[in-house]
Amino acid sequence: MTELTPANENPWYILATICGEFERHVPNSELLAQNRRMWNGWACSGMSDEHRKSIANKIGLPIEELAELEIEERMQLEAAFRDRVPEGIAIPLPKDQVALSKTLFSNTVIFNKYVFAGSASIADCIFEGGADFSSCYFCEFCNLGGTEFKSNAWFEAATFCGPPSFNSAIFLGANFTSAEFGKMTDFGKAIFSHGADFSNSVFKKTARFNRTKFAGAAPKFFETVLHQDTRLSTETEYWPPVSEGDPQDSIEAYTRLRQVMNELQKPEEEHFFYRQEMRWRVKGASGWKWLLLVLFQELSEFGYSIARPIYCLTTLLIVPFLIYLVKFNWDEIVYETYHTKFESIALSFASIFKIFGFQGLYFDSKYMNGLHPALQFLSGIQTILGFVFLFFLALGLRNRFRLR
Q: Where are the membrane-spanning stretches (predicted)?
C-alpha cells in the first residue's frame, strides 16, 4: 500500500484550514467561518461578479463571502501559510488542481460551502474522522476514487459541475441528499458499508453504479432524478442480505428503486428490485401470508424463473406416471384388467394439461369414473398444480422476454 502523507504536510490542506484545524468530532462554527472566508476569497479571485453571485446563491452564502480577499486578509493568509509550510513552497493558484491525493486526514475535515474553482484530486486518501463536503461547489472535475471514509461522509447539497469520480471509494455511511451531478458520475466498484442516501438528488447525465456494493442497508433514492443512462448492478452479491437492515425501510427503498427503473424503462432492473422487495416482504410476513410468499419465491423466484416451473411440471408428470404405472400393472396381475402400454404416461400428461382439453378428448368421464378413487384424486391434484405451474411458467417467460 502506498504511504500516505499526513494532512498537515499538504499545502492545499493547510490553505483550506489556514486559521486552524478541527479536532476530531469537535466542530467549531467560528473557526469554520474563518477558514471558509479565507479559502473562498482566495479560490474565487478573478471570477466575474455574475459567476460569483451564481455560486453564492447555489451554496447559500452572501456574495461578500466570495469576494476577493482584502489586503489585510491576504497578508494574514500569507503569514499563516509561511508559518505552516517548509520554506520555498508558494501559495497555490486558484485555478491549479487541488492536489489532496494520497493524504491521511486524522482529524475531522469540514469543507462546508467551500468553492473549488479548479479540478480537485482527493483520490486514494483516508479520512479517519468525519468528512463534511456538504454544499461544496466543484467547478470542474473532482476525483475521489479509491478514497476511504472511516467515518460518515456528507455531500449534502453539493454541486458537481464537472464529472465526479467515486470509483472504488469506500464509505462507512454517505449522505448525498439534494446533491447535483452535472456531468457523468462514476460510483463503480464503490462500497457503502452502512447505506447511502441519494434522496432529492439530481443526476443530469450518465450515472454509473456498476459493481457498486451496498452493504448494511439498501440505498435511498426518494424523489431522486436519474438520467436515462443510469446503470445499477443486478447481482444480489452487491446488495445487502435479507438478514441486514430494517424490513420496512428496505421494502420502501426497493419499492422506490423499482419505480425509478420503471420510469427509466429498464424492465430487467425493475424486476430485480421487485424481487429484492419481495424477499424483504417474506421476512416481515407471518402466517398464511408468509406461506404464500415463500411458495411464490421457491416455485417461481417471484415470477422470474423459467427453470423452476419446468422442474415442477416435470416432477408432476413423472411421479404420478410411476404411480399410475404401478397401479395398472397391479390391476393386470390381480384383476386381469388390460391397459395399453402408454396409458399411464398419457393419463399423467392429460391430467396436467386438462386446461387444453386433452383429458376430455382421450379419457372420457366413464373412464375417469372407473378409476380407483385415489387415482381420481391424484389426477385432480395434477390438474390444479398443473394450472399453477403453467401460470408461473408463463409469468417467467413474460418477465424474461420483457413482454408488456
A: 306-325, 345-363, 375-397
CB 155 within 8 A of CB 177: no
Q: Is 112 exposed, middle or buried (0-12, 13-18, 19+ CB in 10 A)?
A: buried
* Residue 377: all three cell numbers together: 384424486
Give the Cα-Cα-Cα angle 157, 253, 242 (nearest 5 degrees): 130
Of 203-212, 263-272, 304-313, 326-335, the poorest mean pLDDT is in 326-335
> Per residue in 235-290, pLDDT tens?
999 999 887 778 899 999 999 999 999 999 899 999 999 999 999 999 888 899 99
State how far the Cα of 74 lies from the Cα of 96, in Å rounded to an integer: 18
Cell (9 digits) for 388: 399453477
What ranges make up the beta strands (E) of 150-229? 153-154, 159-160, 164-165, 170-171, 174-175, 180-181, 185-186, 191-192, 196-197, 202-203, 207-209, 213-214
Backbone φ, ψ for residue 248 (5° rounding): -65, -45
Amino acid at the residue 13 = Y
Entry pTM: 0.86
Residue 226: alpha-carbon gap to chain centroid: 13
Provide the residue ranges of all domains of the chain, joining segments of one domain with +.
Answer: 307-400
| Spatial CA neighbour of 164 closest among 113, 116, 128 | 116
